[in-house]
Amino acid sequence: KMQQIINSIKTSGYDADRFTLSISLPISLSIREHSLWLYYEKEGKEILEGKLKKEDIVPLKQIWKYIYPHNVTSEVGLIHESGDTADFFVELVIQWEKDEIEMQVMERLCPKEYKERAKKTNVYNMGVYSRQGVDNSLGSVSHTKFMEEFSVPPPVPDTPFQLDFRMSRSSIWLGGRYCKYTRELPQTPWLIKGVRKCFSSVEELIGDKVKEFLDCEQVKFLASGREDVDVRMLGSGRPFAFECVNSKKTKLSQSDFEDLTKLINDHHKAVQVNSLALVSKSSIKRLKQGEEEKRKQYTALCITKDPYELENIKKLEEFKDLVLKQETPIRVLHRRANAIRDKIVHSMTVTQLNSTLFKLGVISSAGTYIKELVHGDFERTKPNLCSILGVDTDILALDVTEV
After folding, report:
1. What are 184-193's contacts with CB under 8 Å, separation 24+?
2. What is the pLDDT of residues 329-350, one digit of tens each?
3. CB 297 within 8 A of CB 363
4. Residue 129 CB coordination number (10 Å)
5. C-alpha span between 397 and 357 (Å, rounded)
6. Which pLDDT score, from 0 to 100, does residue 354 have?
7. Is the separation of the CB atoms in 238 and 194 below 8 Å?
8. pLDDT tier at 361 (50, 70, 90 boundaries)?
9. Does residue 171 carry a pLDDT above 90?
10. What is the 8-class DSSP label of residue 355?
């Protein structure tokens, strides 16, 4: 099996120069080791007394670490690092089909403790049983009680152990900006009752190519805010990032970024990316903060029910840091809690197009609903252009021009 692991590492395609080799053993081995020690204490007390303590025994896992990583390192040509310092992990997994059944003895030995563990799935999200938890629990169990519930010495396993291995990589984060030049594409997959409403999404058009280029197991999309399906994202684009899970390719040159940019941009002309780079995990927090902290710029094509006077709409340019009371728009109530939020329109500009059409430029705080600023959403946004201008006003098209 070790030779199979060695061959797999060599041909895996991971561009790592360092790795960590570990082994995963059945948790029930802790119970069996405890049982075996109790047996030795009982049968060999005279021999062991004063010469050997339980803590003197080197765990099987530690012995394995002393021997095998060195042998594998010499074969694969990578530097071995212990612990979590390396970003490429190779794990030999030893499984036993009766491990879970045998572990149930802990519920009889420590019923109160394991009953509480079963309830706290948010704390013990990796399972009720853990090696450290079992070792700690056994320390408080009397020898007599243990021997009442579990055989001493431990029984010989009646089914064989299964050996497998897995390779994984620490996630990397790829960031950049995207522009969207269509009014028929959502940012993320748009499904209603399981039915797709658009052929694709910004996330998929970019993410599929990122996954292909980096040979990832999975990509997870994050962005600084979002635009509606019918809203274009122009200017320098919206900041985004992908968490690339178990990526085989992580060492990227400037040429690689250029090739990836071209691969994405050639895929669909409606979505174009720029400024691709590897980013730190900590920078993702700043990306999400930008959703609510940045100023954003918009351009809207607006129409009035009746012809307007230029002087009337020009007064919009006089408003500075106008505070809006925005109740959650009716159109997003299905996915966002109803609340009244304060938003700020820092400035507006107006360009006349004809007697009922005009172009509105808006600089506002992040998260401002611009469509509702224009038509009022049945007075759920106050003030709005209808109330300010004294004429029914609606929006025909909207672009985000800077984030």
Report:
1. 184/229, 184/230, 185/229, 185/270, 185/271, 186/229, 187/223, 187/226, 187/227, 188/221, 188/226, 190/229
2. 999 998 899 999 999 999 999 9
3. yes
4. 21
5. 11
6. 97
7. no
8. very high
9. yes
10. S
Distance CA(106)–CA(341), nearest Å, equals 52
Residue 225 is which amino acid? G
Kindly report the backbone phi and psi dihedral angles of residue 161, in degrees, each rounded to the nearest multiple of 5, phi listed first. Answer: -80, 150
- When mean pLDDT is compared over 34-43, 202-211, 332-341, the highest value belongs to 202-211
pLDDT of amino acid 131? 87
Given a contact cutoff of 8 angstroms between Cβ atoms, the answer to whether 20 and 80 are in contact is yes
Decide: pTM greater than 0.70. yes
CB 88 within 8 A of CB 72: no
Q: What is the H or E stretch that residue 67 is in?
A: helix 60-76
How many Cα neighbours within 13 Å face the side chain of 78? 25
Distance between CA atoms of 289 and 277, rounded to whole angstroms?
Answer: 19
Instruction: Give the separation between CA 30 and CA 268, rounded to whole angstroms.
Output: 55
Rounded average pLDDT over 79-101: 88
Residue 335 φ then ψ, to 5°:
-130, 0
Q: What are the residue numbers of the active site?
A: 228
CA atoms of 226 and 373, how far apart (whole Å):
17
Distances in Å between the Cα of 197 and the Cα atoms of 1, 182, 187, 359 are: 48, 15, 12, 30
Does the structure show a pLDDT above 90 at 59?
no
- The CA distance from 153 to 37, in Å, is 8
**Whole-angstrom distance, CA of residue 107 vs CA of residue 133:** 12
Q: What is the pLDDT of residue 148?
A: 94
pLDDT tens-digit profile of 242-289?
A: 999 999 999 999 999 999 999 999 999 999 999 999 999 888 888 877
Q: What Cα–Cα distance (Å) separates residue 63 from each residue in 34, 40, 66? A: 18, 20, 5
Q: What 3-state DSSP class applies to 302?
A: strand
